[in-house]
Amino acid sequence: MKLNQLYYLSVCILFLAFAGKGYGQSGEFSLRGSLVDGSSEDPLSFVQVALYKPGEERPVTFSDSNEDGKFTLRAPEGDYILRFFLLGFDENEMEINLQQNRVLDPIKMTPENQDLEEVVVQSSKFPIRSDAEGLTINPSQNLSNLGGTLLDILRNTPSVSVSEDGAITLRGSSGTNVLINGRNSSLTQNLDQIPASAIEQIKIINNPNARYDAEAEAGVIDILLKKGQSLGTHGNGELTYGTRGRMNAGVNINHRTLRYNVFGGYNFRRWRSIGERRTEREIFEDGEILNQNTNSTSENLGHNLNFGADYYFGNNIISYEGFFQSSDDSQVNTLYSDLRDVDSNDLVLEYVRRNRETEADDGIDNALIYERTFDSPDKSFKVIASNSYRNQYKIQNIDIFRNSSEPLEENLNGRERAFTDEKRYITVIQTDYTTPLASGAKVEAGLKSTIRKFDNDYIYTRFEENIQDFVPDPNISNRFVYKDQIHAGYLIYSGSSKRFDYTAGLRGEYTYVDTYLANTGEANQQNYFNLFPSLQTLYKLNEENSLKFSYSRRIDRPTSWRLNPFPDITDSLSVRRGNPNLQPEMIHSLELGHMANFENSSLTTNLFYRHVDGQLDFVTIVENGISYSQPANLNTAESYGVEFIGITDIRPWWNVNGSVTAFRIRVDGSNIGEEFVNQGFAWNSKLMNSFELPKGFSFQLIGNYESAEIEAQGKDLSQYYMDLNLQKSFWENKGALSISLRDVFDTRRFAGNSLTNTFRQTFYAKRESRFVMVSGRYRF
Question: Using CB atoms within 10 A of its CB, is residue 460 exposed (0-12), middle (13-18) or buried (19+)?
């Protein structure tokens, strides 16, 4: 009870503690200054000076200091980071608020290994920033991300929920378009393999404009990998070790001048876990109850390498970005099943299935980028060509112990083996052009072609005693080939005044889909063209407060594995299969928000509404005592709700950030059956308290709560958990040692129930979630 009171008290404090300053007026201004040697007071010539937007990787403008150590830069109004670099001197930076022409006091640069006190203009770097498009997440500010993956970051992100199997939902909707560095990639199929230490930022855009693909119901999640922002040579290393031998080790390094930038990073991850899952299902007409319990152990070994280079010449930039991923996964799942008569409790059937599974994943992503800049910051031209490949090879060895409750060798009376070889190819070519108009407005236009191929070859075999060998089963084995092409073009018109900004866009997408079942010769082709309008507006009430409104029409196409009709019979009584007749969802999404930005705090309030025609959802159908879980198009779904996201420095040493998202969902699947109509209210809250303590210590307390949420046939139950993190910094914050206790009270689990006219079902799943991680890191 005291923990709940503390949690809700912190939420109240977060949304009440706001004060600060505002903005300035628009325009372009000059920034002048001079650089001197901190020891001799002599002017420093040929110092590289660059002005960056916070979080951006390329400078807005840059120059060298002259023979007298003086420099001049010009840029539009806004907040910037000013950085200076000269070999043999410590690199420094300042936060600059440019609202008028400014002349800085002389800046002293310190030779390496000396302290610099004159130029220390620092403020807390908020872990979350909210703007008119959405959210920007800085993972390094959350200690719980140390040694974790992308999914760990998203678990602590406002509006985002991560399910038991790693599926992402955003404001209650599961369809998200996940990008890597703004591009489609086959590597996003396994997000738990992307280490948190390789991620610079994550952008979440709930209602993207026409520049982005119209794909996905919930919006866009863009993962920006580290490539180095600062001039000079920089790097960092991280080593994490935890209970059950969990381990994460990584290093990133880059060297940047005003002419070129090269970067690279490597990460090794070993993750071990145990878990259990319990299911109870009663089929009413059979009068039988099925109880199933699964125990699992798993280990994953992963290697990730990101690398690339940028070359700057004149107003041109040529870049190469690469990402390689390799992992080996092994797990043992032992399923205990018993079927009993409801009235007498007599045993009808019992068996044990032990699945020993190994999986090897390898993938690579390559991109070549050309960008042309102009004197006007509102004019640009970019061409991107990328290709990604992923190969997943999985072997399942299944031992069956029929009429037995123990997996003993003397009880072994069946063996099965399955091989899955899946290859994914994605090629993207796109070009974007932006130019200002004489009226002060701006026009953006672009073309994009995305070509994909997913080839899934599945071979299922049974051991035949009479020949002492495994024989393929053609009724289950299959090869499914999915191909699609999406060719798109967009046009955006935007304008800005002192108080009002707007962006109106239209995107057209032609879609061609071709699926082929090799063992039946069945082919299915679809092609269609859709228009997707979008609108974003921002009205500045005053220096601190702004109103925003956005609308977009979107599409969510069924994925290849949802279309594959062949069953997964790892459990012969609970089968999962695809549906080749699925059609895409069509979505209308609206959002109205208020943003209050102050010097040390911000509060964003969003009202949102989403209507979906042809909602894609999983339904369970019982046939001959076997339950089949498969996707289906429901009539409609709609959700509406409110979201609060706040950040504040309550004290210079105490920062709080958190969110509350509350929404109502209504699902209408009456086209399948009246029992597939459901509605309900859900909410979730995330809260992070960060404390800067004496002697270089920092402490974080993170809490997450997710209420029960309805599905087409039932609901998922609520869950909550809390993390604790303590860190000690060394060597002027270049080094740090931290300890993290995840899920302090061991409360994190997934559970739910379903109820229809023919059956009821409950499930409970718990993976090991309480563990300790110790991390050390150093940056140079």
Answer: buried
**Residue 215: inside a domain:** no
CB-based contact 665:161 (threshold 8 Å): no
- Domain boundaries, position 358: 233-779
Closest CA to 698 of 121, 126, 156, 143: 143
Residue where one domain finishes, among candidates 48, 75, 109: 109
Identify the band that residue 160 occupies on the pLDDT scale cut at 50, 70 and 90.
confident
3-state secondary structure of 2: helix
The total of structural domains in the chain comes to 2
Which amino acid, 239? L
Residue 266, strand partner residues: 251, 305
Q: Closest by alpha carbon to 180, among 172, 189, 171?
A: 189
Give yes or no: residues 500 and 365 share one domain.
yes
User: What are the tens digits of pLDDT across the range 346-379?
Assistant: 999 999 999 999 999 999 999 999 999 887 878 8
Instruction: State the distance between the two ends of the chain, measured CA to CA, in whole angstroms.
Output: 45
The answer to whether residue 115 sits within a structural domain is no
Helix %, strand %, coil % of the chain (to 5): 5, 65, 30
Task: Report phi then psi at 9, rounded to 5.
Answer: -65, -40
210 in a domain, yes or no?
no
Q: Within a domain: residue 10?
A: no
- Which tokens belong to 636? 């409609």
Q: Kindly provide the residue ranges of all beta strands, DSSP E only, lying in 669-758, ordered along the sequence.
A: 677-692, 697-706, 709-710, 714-716, 719-730, 735-742, 750-755
pTM equals 0.80
Residue found by looking up tokens 């949420």 in the block: 709
CATH number at residue 413: 2.40.170.20
**What confidence tens digit (pLDDT) does each residue in 282-303 have?**
988 888 899 999 999 999 999 9
Of the residues 109, 130, 158, the one at which a domain ends: 109
**Cα angle value 261/264/269 (rounded, 5°):** 160
Distance (Å, whole) CA 501 – CA 377:
17
